[in-house]
Structure prediction request, 548 residues.
Amino acid sequence: MSRKVHVEKTVTINKSAAELYQFWRDFENLPYFMKHLKSVHVINNRQSHWIEDAPFGTSVEWDAEIINEQENQLIAWASMAGSEIKHSGSVQFQPATGERGTAVKVKLEYESPAGIIGEAIAKLFGEEPEQQIGDDLHRFKQLMETGEIATTEGQSSGR
Amino acid sequence: MKAVCWHGANDVRVDTVPDPKILNPRDAILKITSTAICGSDLHLYNGYIPTMQSGDILGHEFMGEVVELGREVKNLQIGDRVVVPFTISCGGCFFCQRDLWSLCDNTNPNAWMAEKLYGHSPSGLFGYSHMLGGYAGGQAEYVRVPFADVGPMKIPAELSDEQVLFLTDIFPTGYMAAENCDIQPGDTVAVWGCGPVGQFCIKSAYMLGAERVIAIDRIPERLQMAKEQCHAEIINYEEVDAGEALKEMTGGRGPDACIDAVGMEAHGMGLDAFYDQAKQAVRLETDRPTALRQVLLACRKGGHVSIPGVYGGFLDKVPMGAAMNKGLTLKMGQTHVHRYLKPLLEHVQRGDIDPSFVITHRLPLEEAPKGYEIFKHKKDSCIKIVLKP
Prediction:
């Protein structure tokens, strides 16, 4: 049974569309805030190789290609033919009213075949893919607005 | 290091835990010199704030000396003596830039938890549940301070710890509560709750021009402090009906502004108070809004209601009809501490106020469990405890 995950999320970031676009356009930056993304290697101006962490110590890899882009407004990409999973995504940057930053809208779709990779992808997104993408976007916002990602990982406790 | 850890309702312990480390470029590590137990820590102690985990380090009122700095903190130096706001703020988001520091968008790593309950997430707080960030608190020998280039304020050497410690929370909280009353010349302000925040509400209301302040509580020594230290008129609600007394004292009109400095664990006299105790005990209600109900009924038509008392969840039988039909203005929120640090420090420096008047107990950090217990039960005339690591 193939599995399909489709998520849409929007967050407003207190930076210009141009700054946000430039950061995102370099796909090698994405793993900084996309938690499950292990690495993205940019092959050329349109193509890149993505490696996503998956449960059970495995990973899923695919090649992606930019299929549409409008400078400072939109980037859309999709996995290339023959990939193990079908993935596509887009990000739109729209200036908010009254110079209140930029609304960033992300759409992601994963379609995976039956079998172990399908299972892995399903596990990866768990019950709440919306929340995971929401968290990724929160981290993108934190990174852009503050230069770092708020964390408590590694702090002291009495546990 | 030694740290005060939460292990469940009515169970705090002084544990030995690893020293904090710099985790992000804008972090600092402080060696704590003074730290206090807040009334809102009792909501944690009593088990009414969700998303606490056993082992969490408590404490959000603390100050100390900078011992380590992340590479992006340029405005502080090792050895600086600072107070730290209990709200953690980034300084760069929509809300920080509008002086709404406790609503910072970027400091709660667990924003999704708060979003589920509140729709949106407020800022992260020190030592106040995972829903509000899960940050280790400052009832400890050392603490990690995130966004240390924004929050901490340096303190001149001539001021003692006790004079400035409460700039971290309760003084600004009382002050903002009074500011939210929009006090006009001639105004009478009523304050429910004479705990430390209530005391600062009274002092602040006078500082902002109130003509009369009336304080309501049931604990004799707290009423006495309100009267003698803060010059409030007082009502003991166990002796008289507070609503009637307020009407009588204000010529039937009611106070121009009312402050609920009690929050979610109110006590009361009527059937409604009993009802709330029972419902909260079996978790049918998260908060006991006994004080808030009285506030809404007592406030004069067109008056201001200010709520510094902490509410966490859902309230039963709040007389919204009174609030609406009397045209009340309601203002509330976690304190925007950063906004008040400098102006209130100046008040302390000028000698307008010495915030140390609320302190009744000074204990070594090791005695924190005893401190929580006497503070909770208001034993030994306890009003405010300062812990010394």
